[in-house]
Design goal:
Blueprint: E1 37-40, H1 41-46, H2 53-63, H3 68-75, H4 86-95, H5 97-109, H6 114-130, E2 138-142, E3 150-153, E4 156-160, H7 170-174, H8 179-182, H9 190-202, H10 212-229, H11 235-239, H12 243-251, H13 253-262, H14 271-278, H15 295-310, H16 316-321, H17 325-332
Parallel strand pairs: 1-2, 2-4
Antiparallel strand pairs: 3-4
């Protein structure tokens, strides 16, 4: 019987250190006065005191033309505001007992939204610092019926508060969300998720990217961008990993890299290989059960950290615009 080569993963304990070193990214934003607008859309839509939907929907569409069509058509899929039948579909959504329950629970769990608002405001002040010419998004909170988490449209970020009620909410298990997803459905993940989806929309992966290495480096850029916008956030919030999973990645960084090299996976264009190391999951298939999903993204983050430390004159806009993933990897000198 053929004996396959295996990689031994270390279990030595190390200190849980910050991803790239926070200080260089914690820029001075005290002189930036412009702030993102944060609109509590769900309160205007779902409050029991609101007017009938045939009157409310046109008012919302007129007041929030950048978000209302995105929400009704793309998120709820009940149609554009001007289409016949959309107000009826939205009225049905509003009167649904599960939606009203989600709204009431959201009003309780997010009653004190100040901390999250401050995190979002500070994050996008840092975005203004690094990208002074780029327009800031409008940020809308909503209830989507457990349909979306954070999502983007043209110039907007949507945040479904019913997906951030806390991992103890019974609805999440009833709806079939696995535990690895439930533990991230907490208020603390709102700002990281909002920043991540904005980055994915503003800096999509190159259409020429076909292999795992390119996806790894691209995801590393996304995590580095998150760190730049949220330099005070713990690594668990940047990655979505637990603390033991972050420790596992640090303990086994060189073993993971060796595994990819020795199994000739780094330049694989097989979708199965890309999904295995880039997509979320309870663990990375092929690695020990202590591993998190998305280990490829974590490796990519370390590559970008090395690259930016080696070339400190590189600005964040220059990094995000660089789609030469092989060049970034080569010039980083990454060798854990």
């Amino acid at each position: 019987m053929r004996k396959e080569k295996t990689i031994i993963f270390g279990i030595a304990l190390v200190l849980l250190l910050a991803g790239c070193g926070r200080n260089p990214l914690n820029v001075d934003i005290s002189g930036i006065s412009e702030e993102v607008s944060i609109i509590r859309f769900e309160q205007e839509l779902l409050s029991p005191e609101n007017q009938p939907m045939d009157k409310l929907l046109p008012a919302l569409a007129d007041k929030y033309p950048d978000f209302t069509p995105l929400f009704t058509d793309q998120v709820l899929r009940v149609g554009n505001p001007e289409e016949e039948g959309t107000s009826e579909g939205l009225a049905t959504f509003r009167s649904d007992t599960m939606i009203q329950s989600a709204y009431r629970l959201s009003e309780i769990r997010h009653a004190s939204f100040d901390k999250t608002e401050k995190e979002l405001v500070k994050a996008f002040k840092r975005y203004r610092y690094h990208f002074p010419q780029a327009p800031l998004p409008n940020i809308y909170t909503c209830i989507s019926g457990y349909n979306e988490s954070a999502f983007v449209g043209e110039g907007v970020i949507g945040i479904s508060l019913d997906k951030y009620l806390g991992q103890d909410v019974a609805y999440y298990s009833l709806l079939g969300y696995p535990r690895y997803k439930q533990r991230k459905m907490i208020p603390e993940m709102i700002a990281p998720d909002a920043v991540y989806v904005w980055a994915m929309g503003e800096f999509p992966i190159s259409l020429k990217a076909t292999n795992l290495m390119e996806h790894i480096v691209h995801e590393g850029k996304m995590l580095y961008f998150m760190e730049a916008m949220l330099p005070e956030a713990h690594d668990t919030l940047i990655t979505g990993f637990t603390e033991p999973q972050v420790r596992w990645c640090r303990n086994n960084e060189s073993q993971m890299w060796s595994y990819l090299i020795e199994h000739e996976l780094l330049y694989s264009s097989k979708q199965m290989d890309i999904v295995r190391y880039i997509n979320d999951g309870p663990m990375t298939n092929g690695f020990p059960p202590e591993s998190p999903g998305r280990t490829g993204a974590w490796i990519g983050w370390q590559i970008i950290c090395k690259y930016m430390k080696k070339f400190p004159e590189t600005t964040l806009p220059q990094l995000m615009a660089n789609e030469n993933y092989q060049e970034i990897l080569t010039q980083s000198g990454y060798l854990p």
